[in-house]
Amino acid sequence: MRKMLRARLRLPIAETLHIAHILAQTVLGFLTGANNNRDTTRKARAPWKSHIFAAKDGSGRKTVLNFFGRLEYQDGKRRRYINQQEVAAQFYHGRGTVHLHLLVWLQHVETVKLEDSISATVPVDNAVAGPCAVARPTTMRKPKYYDFTTEEDFCSYNRDGTPEGLRAYIKDVLSSLHCHVDVQMSDGRGLLLRYVSGYRFRVPVPWEGACPDRVVQYMNNRWRAEDMTLADFLRKTNLRGGVHRSFVRRHQQLFRNDEDVMEETLEDWVNNAPLQGDVAVAAIYLSRYNDRYYGQWVLMNVPFRSMDDLRREELDRVPPHLYYQALALLLRPDHWTSEAATRAELELEAFREHHIRNILAMLFANQGLIRKYLSGELDKNDDVVAGPADGAGPGTAVELSGHQQRLAAELLDAYHQGTQLRQQGENELPPWTARTSPFAPAVDGRSAYTILGPAGSGKTTTAHQVIRQVAANGRVLLTAPTGRLAATLRERFPDLEVDTVHGAFLVHKPTQEAMEVLWPYDLIVVEEVGQPPAADRIPTLIFVGDFYQLPGVDPFNALDSPLWHSVLVKKRELHTMLRCKCPKLREKLELLRIGKPTVRQLMQIKAGHKAPSLHRAGYVMAEEPSDEDIGMILEETPQTLFLTVSRRACAQLNAAAVTALFSDDIPL
Predict the structure, then answer these.
(1) What gap in Å lies between CA 493 and CA 509, rounded to an integer?
(2) What predicted TM-score, i.e. pTM, was given to this entire model?
């Protein structure tokens, strides 16, 4: 903002509310024609019929099926998640103004004539609106346009207006409001995505724990039809289980105009009422790579009156890791054996093509195994299913080594001591022991703990065992430096509070605003201690990680903090790589972990592992392997697995392998 000579506007509250009011009325009247409010005489005013998205062919057909808008305020404060490129451009979130996100569902699009209302060229006839159209160039590489006859492309940009990379805009809105406008059009892929707000329904897994209240309402509801699914029930009912008010209004309107509706009660009509986007359900699912997701899908899409209605005797023949996929396949074979149906469901959630192909390949491969188990060709008792990296899931006990057991006992003792001191402090807190800040060192000398060690030494296993025991009676906060690792931990511990380091400790805010965040917790664990920055104000009980692996993006880490080298942090190390069973490989990993090998050590490591290893007179391998190099490697070791750091290198190796293996074959 400084480089562009711009600053936060610091508008008065009244002016901000005035802008919000103008944006809201623009949506209700100017764009959608939904402004049928009552005036001071309580008479309903007719909505606008000549709005932007109205039918232009004189037919009077209804074109706006529904719309959803959300006003957001750019407070101008520091942004939490930014990369280096964004830092150079704009470190703060906006100029301190309000803006609008709007989704509009249209029907009979050809009658709206969007090509006359939307443009992506510089408005040369309007000197004020012109800069608004060109001030924010798009990041898309290819010019895009929308063909209203075939509806086969993404609508943002036309053929002629893309050399400057302009954002599409609504002509009348730009000329009236003189603000930035970005119009996009989609065929229905993931229209809601992150715009869904309100009550979040965490979809339960069948036969795991008690049913939520909404599921109990669904099973006990008397007026719903037997073929109504839980997903439709959530869309058509309120939190108390009654008919949602949007359907009540629709029924009242039809009751006044349609004689056929007069003969039906509200409940009977709701059972057959079509869904028109009246209610959006924000349901939280697991990953599709998790077998329990398919149990959630069954619960939402298969009608039932009791959980026992979903049970099938054939599931006893299927191993646990395919249990719910088999259940979904048995209950809805038409859906899960149809690639088109599964693909349409994934596309609706805006998954990318490579992700869709991966999921489809996994599903059909698993279905082949499921059929063999159901037919008796395979026996689940003959399988040995490997558990997760640390042993198993949240409820599985793992046998610890002697060193791990002693470390876990020490951590549990520290937890119990802290709990007792907290209870004593709540009952009686003398003035000479009171602390002014939760970040100040404890008077009783209690310390934070660190678990360090090489990969596979059991750091995570030990910490997770402690977490499981503490979570039974205490409150645990589990943090990770990255969102991806936090998501993995959240899947492993769904009942615990898991967040990133920055989000959990509010390191993006002043210290005085983050003081009380950590008080409710009995145990706080930070995974991968080598990645968080050297922030002295991050109070934790247990740090887990290894400074020799997974460095963070910041130039400093926890080792640079003065508190790390003080007596307030007790350091415990695990030296044995329990995961690695090969003594020779373990010796090489330990050497590479802590330092750079000498020339002699490197020659010993490469002995017998350099490809191609056969002696060839005058042969010298170049920096990039040639087709001849790949051919010689595959000739010596046909089962070689090549690893690359990029997709381009992978494609190059694949082409070289095809040339080496099938050079004499004639393509079909």
Answers:
(1) 27
(2) 0.42
